[in-house]
């Protein structure tokens, strides 16, 4: 599985989040969702630059951060490869939850909520749900 098609970076220049951090966050999300697995190659800096029109040094900074965290490994002349995953549950195990969340998201959209509204609502509920975990 050494293809790089599993992740396509989308940069939101208005988000207020540093571009390299968006790459780090999107890579981690792909790892959590099982879209990237150990052995997979990340897109090359050139591929990311062509797709997003960002500075190559920004991509390299993101990849260095992922390497520092032990998630990827740069192999000279070959590319940057995933070394470990962040997925808690296997993708097959979370399919029912994903379907429920997709249904809920469609209902929220039908009720007139915008993407940012849904995100804020979900984040607020998520934070409240996991607050107890931090207190212990």
Automatic annotation (TrEMBL):
Provenance organism: Streptomyces pulveraceus
PANTHER family named among the record's database cross-references: GNTR-FAMILY TRANSCRIPTIONAL REGULATOR, HTH-TYPE TRANSCRIPTIONAL REPRESSOR YTRA
Signal peptide: none
Statement: the UniProt record of this protein carries the keyword DNA-binding: yes
Domain HTH gntR-type: from-to ranges: 17-85
CDD domains from the UniProt entry: WHTH_GntR (cd07377)
Domain of life: Bacteria
SMART domains registered for this protein in UniProt: HTH_GNTR
Keyword entries, A-Z: DNA-binding, Transcription, Transcription regulation
Record-linked Pfam families: GntR
UniProt entry tagged with the keyword Protein biosynthesis: no
Bilayer-spanning residue ranges: none
Name recorded for this polypeptide: GntR family transcriptional regulator
Sections of the chain in a coiled coil: none
């Amino acid at each position: 599985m050494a293809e790089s098609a599993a992740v396509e970076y989308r940069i939101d220049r208005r988000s207020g989040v540093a571009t390299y951090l968006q790459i780090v966050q999107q890579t981690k999300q792909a790892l959590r969702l099982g879209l990237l697995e150990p052995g997979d190659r990340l897109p090359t800096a050139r591929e990311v630059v062509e797709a997003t029109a960002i500075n190559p040094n920004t991509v390299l900074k993101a990849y260095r951060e992922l390497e520092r965290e032990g998630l990827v490994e740069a192999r000279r002349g070959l590319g940057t490869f995933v070394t470990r995953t962040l997925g808690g549950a296997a993708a097959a195990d979370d399919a029912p939850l994903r379907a429920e969340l997709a249904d809920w998201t469609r209902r929220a959209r039908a009720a007139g909520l915008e993407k940012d509204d849904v995100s804020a609502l979900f984040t607020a509920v998520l934070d409240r749900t996991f607050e107890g975990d931090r207190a212990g």
